Backbone:
């Protein structure tokens, strides 16, 4: 029976259910985006152009990587008409999942499953689908939209399946970069499930999980780990509701490679029959090929330095019965864990084996490999099937044996035998053992070599339990059925041959049959031949599938695996398969290896795609900051009890309420009841290697009966069994109130053996962890090494359990907020028998406790560090004569001791009581303790509401869906920046400033207060410090005269706090006497060649008065160059200067002032008006327009043409230069505020000019024909400097004080200097 026939017989190639499908949509404009839409939500992906800004214009070749990660924007939101209005379907049929994103060169591709078929049902509600074809869609280019493969799907040819249109190769203009990946993923060896976590075996998954947690995926077996990781990380940043919606949409897919198939077994052939159901049973085999050291036969051999081996496969056999029983058994195979290679050759069985590293150099990687196996599965039993006669295989066996002998796990402690080591080996020469007349049937003889380990490893078993669903637990009818773990597998067989294919698969079939037989035997059942025939066919299909992946063809010896005998046709088929393997290994495997490495992201320079979701990331940060708004602390009560039963069952029917319902509880009812047992079965040599769950189930029933009877009153609730676990004699049961089940999640169990060096289960620990709301709690019950003087051994047992016991996601005991240890720790009291008994009679518990071994070990820090124990107020609990209160009176006369203890760790735990109970049917007394535990309760409704508010506000701020933003939007600003400290705004970028609202221009909603008098107006106080947070006594607002008043010119001055114009000083100067202050002459006035009268500025002043609105923003303080060409600004204020009337008192060049009033009189000179400095009148920002002087000059050129006639023709070019220089930059150095006299006039050619000062004069772009300057700002009194060697501006001079209220004449042209009041 081949694979296709088997699959057809089971399911008929049924496609996945419609609710498991999605639609792929695309939008081309304004930017390319792809959406995966389910019935309720949509995942929108868009390539970020900012990641490719530096990309070359030529597109790189396929499978080339430049080392720069591609960025994509992603958004997950509910579907709506507006959200998907511009999208169209990209495929005519639905898709069944997303495998992830991969970048090839500069292109980013989305991989989706386009065809799949159901191949397995592990149990109802848990199905597995096989991937039959995939498709890659480019996110950033439409170049590959019409590129399709031309080969049809064929499992044996390893080709890709058909998708899209049936185009020939001549119709395809370019080859798709992901064509080989498409062939690989569609070759029928990849499987996925949207119902459960297919990457983990049943034991490592929650027993009763309705939905699986993507975070728990085992990346060792997740083949699309590299592609799906960006989406998984994006999912982890979503809020709880959105994360649940994304999981429910079934968009993200976990894919394994290997084999998966189920047989449906009718009730007539099922070994376990369920009454009145009529449902079939399901027998399933799932093989998970590791992707850690993945590759083809001769390209991937041996081990690497990380401890990963080639062709490592975990194979799990599961059986589900309608009676509510689930069985699982796992075993592994893998290449010989040493460094070796083998070259492909054209002659079969002649490929030379090369050892590439010495035995000592191999040992670290060897130890790491088996340490990981021991942590994941427990004890390891190696089954080596290599030949003892072939030289190459003999050399591998020798190195294998050396590694095991020197591995720490293979060394038993003390005087224990080799059988008690965690790592054992059985060498079984398969070819030599099956050469006889029995043929491959002789392989069954391996049972006698491994049966002891098979019994000790046990298997995983879970059974359905009925719980009431109403809050008070009063309903007698079952409303909810849930699985409870009965037994766990505690070890694993590791089988290998050379290729780990043919011989390995046959032996693993036998081991799987042994485990199923043990499971049925414990239940008193026997399977029929029809059942074993289905079991054999599943394993034969498994061998064929794994062999095709690794070697290119089906497995050899599969005929015997299926039918139990080797036929001639089977032998001929093996010859054909061997020849086909030679072809694949020599000519096709290298290309297949490159494709595998590309899929797993292992090529040099290959980087994963980077996804960012601006809104969700922002929401997550805000929620963390506001967690106190939706989080509260509540207190729950926990009861913990421990009892060493000494293997006795006569107390099952006794009243246990003295222990389980002690008087310390009063009227309170604990939310959680944790009960631990030791020696639940008699620890004889037959029992310590096996785990029988029957005895544990009896005690579970006894506990529940006692609790229900005691709390069967008004106001109390019934308890339900949450989970239980067993390790031979140690057992742990967790009961919870029915009303708190909704607060409990992530319930997991684990065991750790320590007895006989961890090989047997007579000593060890059972642990169960859970999350109560948002508080993780762990319960550990342990039975440590016995013996008065073995306190060091007990401390080592504790360290082994604390370090080696692991839950899912490698979570340890210490990774919980609250931890409670309880059990028979076996620590004794270090006193003599009579001394101890005498102290007991005196009730001198303090003296006894001073000599307690556990107390001494904890004080010394050798055991249970950071744990606490309440004060012991009860008598030693060991050892009593059964049925009495007398301590041991036997010949052994054991010293009384507190062997049964309860310890705690966690700041949120407060112990309320600690005592023992008077139950006398064992040689121990039961001990109990009650605790008050503070748990963190998150109001999910309030959290979701706050999350939605933040989300909507952020979305409105950004302006809509982030993935649908226009292409010109700044995507980098959407990424956001984190604050350096909590409570501070995030850091700013060039485009994003925290003090601006969402990038908008700053605006103020504050209006100035009304002035005290209508003659004044209110402005910002210019004396305020620039830093608004600096303490100051200055008021925010000041009043200045309006423009109609005599002081109106001051209202035009800048009110910016950055322009320090001292209004009050100017006013005080204006109110002083009108006598001009005499200053030293700056130069000889008689040297001036021409005098220019008062300029006519009435029109200019009138235009300036008509200007309406606030003053323009200030220009830069440094005036820059004037270059040729007009640069007129509409808002530039008119600049002017005045010529002096009298030469008696030379007036230095004054500041150019803006016109505020145009009233002038020729008969009586009016007082000069304070003018706005030139540097305050330009409207351009200092950040974007350095050419300020040019605009000041050109703005007045047209109005001043008439003034040109008053300029003498004798005006020389040198004077032109001086006028231009003074006009544009005469204030390159300003005088100090306290100077009152000008320095003696000197020329300083070496003084650097103002930055950018030009020698050209710009007035409407040209000079007048006479050579005079075509503008009104012309100095009429300048010295003739034609005799100077090099024209240069004058040296710095000190400016005199100016009388602002004096005559407005007598002012010199040529620039401005700082005003200085008296």
Residues:
């Amino acid at each position: 029976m081949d694979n296709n026939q088997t699959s057809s017989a089971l399911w008929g190639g049924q496609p996945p259910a419609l609710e498991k499908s999605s639609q792929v949509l695309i939008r081309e404009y304004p930017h390319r985006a792809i959406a995966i839409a389910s019935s309720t939500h949509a995942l929108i992906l868009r390539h970020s152009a900012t990641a490719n800004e530096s990309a070359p214009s030529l597109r790189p070749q396929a499978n080339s990587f430049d080392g720069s990660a591609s960025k994509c924007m992603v958004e997950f939101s509910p579907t709506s008409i507006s959200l998907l209005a511009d999208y169209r379907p990209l495929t005519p049929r639905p898709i069944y999942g997303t495998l992830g994103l991969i970048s090839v060169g500069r292109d980013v591709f989305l991989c989706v499953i386009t065809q799949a078929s159901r191949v397995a049902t592990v149990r109802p509600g848990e199905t597995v689908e096989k991937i039959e074809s995939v498709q890659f869609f480019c996110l950033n280019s439409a170049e590959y939209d019409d590129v399709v493969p031309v080969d049809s799907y064929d499992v044996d040819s390893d080709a890709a399946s058909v998708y899209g249109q049936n185009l020939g190769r001549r119709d395809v203009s370019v080859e798709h970069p992901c064509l080989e990946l498409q062939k690989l993923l569609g070759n029928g060896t990849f499987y996925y499930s949207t119902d459960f976590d297919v990457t983990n075996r049943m034991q490592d998954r929650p027993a009763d999980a309705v939905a699986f947690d993507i975070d728990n995926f085992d990346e060792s077996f997740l083949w699309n780990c590299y592609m799906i990781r960006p989406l998984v990380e994006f999912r982890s940043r979503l809020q709880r509701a959105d994360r649940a919606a994304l999981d429910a949409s079934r968009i993200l897919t976990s894919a394994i490679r290997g084999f998966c198939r189920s047989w449906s077994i009718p009730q007539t052939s099922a070994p376990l029959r369920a009454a009145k159901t009529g449902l079939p049973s399901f027998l399933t085999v799932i093989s998970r090929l590791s992707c850690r050291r993945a590759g083809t036969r001769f390209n991937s051999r041996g081990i690497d330095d990380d401890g990963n081996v080639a062709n490592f496969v975990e194979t799990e056999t599961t059986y589900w019965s309608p009676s509510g029983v689930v069985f699982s058994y796992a075993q592994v195979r893998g290449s010989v864990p040493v460094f070796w290679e083998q070259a492909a050759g054209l002659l079969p069985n002649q490929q030379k084996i090369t050892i590439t590293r010495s035995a000592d150099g191999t040992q670290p990687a060897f130890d790491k490999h088996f340490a990981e196996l021991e942590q994941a599965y427990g004890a390891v039993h190696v089954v080596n099937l290599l030949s003892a006669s072939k030289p190459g295989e003999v050399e591998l066996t020798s190195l294998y044996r050396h590694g095991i002998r020197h591995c720490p796990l293979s060394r038993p402690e003390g005087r224990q035998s080799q059988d008690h080591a965690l790592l054992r080996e059985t060498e079984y020469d398969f070819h030599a053992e099956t050469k006889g007349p029995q043929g491959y049937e002789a392989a069954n003889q391996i049972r006698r070599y491994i049966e002891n380990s098979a019994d000790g490893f046990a298997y995983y078993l879970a059974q359905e339990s009925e719980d009431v669903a109403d809050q008070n637990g009063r309903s007698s009818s079952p409303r909810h059925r849930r699985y409870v773990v009965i037994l766990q597998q505690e070890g694993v067989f590791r089988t290998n041959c050379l290729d780990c294919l043919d011989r390995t698969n046959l032996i693993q079939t036998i081991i799987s049959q042994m485990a199923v037989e043990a499971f049925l035997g414990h239940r008193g059942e026997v399977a029929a031949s029809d059942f074993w025939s289905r079991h054999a066919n599943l394993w034969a299909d498994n061998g064929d599938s794994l062999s095709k992946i690794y070697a290119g063809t089906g497995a050899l010896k599969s005929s015997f695996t299926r039918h139990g005998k080797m036929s001639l046709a089977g032998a001929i088929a093996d010859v054909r398969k061997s020849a086909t393997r030679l072809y694949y290994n020599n000519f096709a495997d290298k290309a297949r290896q490159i494709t595998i490495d590309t899929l797993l992201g292992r090529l040099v320079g290959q980087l994963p795609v980077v996804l960012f979701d601006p809104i969700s990331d922002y929401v997550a940060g805000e929620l963390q900051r506001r967690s106190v708004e939706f989080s509260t602390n509540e207190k729950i009560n926990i009861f913990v009890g421990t009892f060493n039963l000494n293997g006795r069952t006569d107390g099952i029917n006794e009243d246990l309420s003295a222990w389980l319902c002690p008087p310390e509880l009063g009227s309170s009812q604990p939310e959680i009841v944790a009960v631990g047992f030791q020696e639940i079965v008699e620890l004889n040599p037959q029992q310590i290697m096996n785990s029988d769950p029957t005895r544990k189930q009896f005690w579970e029933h006894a506990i529940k009966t006692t609790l229900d009877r005691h709390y069967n009153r008004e106001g109390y609730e019934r308890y339900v069994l949450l989970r239980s676990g067993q390790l031979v004699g140690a057992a742990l049961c967790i009961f919870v109130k029915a009303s708190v089940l909704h607060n409990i999640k992530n319930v997991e169990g684990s065991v750790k053996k320590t007895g006989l060096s961890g090989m047997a289960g007579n000593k060890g620990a059972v642990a169960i962890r859970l999350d109560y709301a948002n508080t993780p709690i762990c319960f550990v019950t342990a039975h440590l090494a016995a013996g008065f003087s073995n306190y060091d051994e007990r401390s080592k047992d504790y360290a082994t359990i604390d370090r080696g016991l692991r839950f899912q996601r490698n979570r340890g005991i210490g990774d919980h907020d609250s931890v409670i240890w309880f059990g028979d720790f076996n620590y004794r009291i270090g006193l003599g028998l009579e001394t101890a008994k005498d102290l007991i009679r005196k009730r001198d518990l303090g003296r006894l406790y001073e000599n307690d071994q556990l107390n001494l070990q904890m004080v010394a820090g050798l055991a249970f560090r950071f744990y606490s124990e309440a004060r012991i107020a009860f008598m030693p609990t060991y050892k009593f004569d059964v049925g009495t209160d007398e301590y041991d009176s036997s010949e052994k006369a054991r010293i009384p001791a507190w062997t049964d203890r309860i310890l705690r760790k966690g700041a949120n735990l407060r112990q309320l009581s600690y005592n023992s109970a008077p139950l006398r049917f064992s040689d121990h007394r039961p001990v109990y303790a009650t605790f008050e535990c503070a748990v963190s309760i998150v109001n999910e409704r309030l959290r979701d509401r706050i999350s939605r508010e933040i989300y909507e506000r952020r979305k409105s701020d950004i302006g809509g869906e982030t993935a649908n933003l226009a292409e010109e939007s700044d995507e980098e600003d959407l990424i956001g920046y984190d604050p350096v400290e909590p409570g501070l705004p995030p850091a700013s970028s060039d485009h994003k400033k925290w003090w601006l609202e969402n990038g908008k221009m700053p605006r103020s909603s504050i209006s100035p207060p009304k002035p005290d008098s209508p003659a004044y107006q209110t402005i910002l106080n210019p004396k305020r410090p620039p830093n608004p947070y600096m303490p100051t006594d200055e008021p925010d607002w000041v009043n200045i005269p309006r423009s109609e008043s005599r002081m109106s010119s001051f209202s035009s001055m800048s009110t910016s706090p950055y322009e320090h114009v001292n209004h009050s000083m100017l006013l005080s100067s204006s109110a002083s006497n009108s006598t001009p202050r005499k200053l030293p002459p700056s130069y000889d006035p008689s040297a001036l060649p021409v005098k220019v009268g008062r300029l006519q500025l009435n029109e200019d002043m009138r235009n300036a008065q008509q200007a309406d609105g606030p003053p323009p923003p200030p220009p830069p303080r440094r005036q820059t160059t004037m270059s040729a060409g007009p640069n007129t600004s509409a808002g530039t204020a008119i600049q002017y200067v005045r010529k002096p009337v009298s030469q008696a008192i030379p007036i230095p060049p004054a500041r150019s002032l803006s016109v505020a009033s145009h009233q002038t009189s020729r008969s009586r000179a009016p007082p000069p008006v304070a003018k706005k400095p030139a540097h305050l009148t330009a409207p351009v920002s200092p950040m974007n327009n350095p050419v300020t002087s040019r605009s000041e000059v050109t703005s007045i050129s047209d109005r001043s043409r008439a003034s040109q006639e008053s300029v003498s023709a004798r005006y020389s070019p040198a004077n032109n230069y001086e006028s231009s220089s003074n006009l544009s930059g005469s204030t390159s150095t300003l005088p100090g505020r306290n100077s009152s006299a000008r320095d003696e006039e000197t020329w300083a050619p070496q003084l650097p000019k103002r930055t950018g000062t030009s020698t050209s004069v710009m007035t409407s772009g040209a000079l007048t024909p006479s050579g005079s300057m075509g503008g009104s700002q012309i100095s009429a009194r300048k010295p003739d400097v034609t005799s100077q060697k090099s024209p240069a501006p004058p040296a710095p001079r000190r400016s005199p004080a100016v009388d602002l209220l004096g005559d407005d004449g007598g002012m010199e042209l040529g620039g401005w200097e700082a005003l200085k009041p008296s």
About this structure: The chain has 25 helices and 34 strands. The longest helix spans residues 568-599. The two ends are 113 Å apart (CA to CA). Residues 327 and 461 are 5 Å apart (CA to CA).
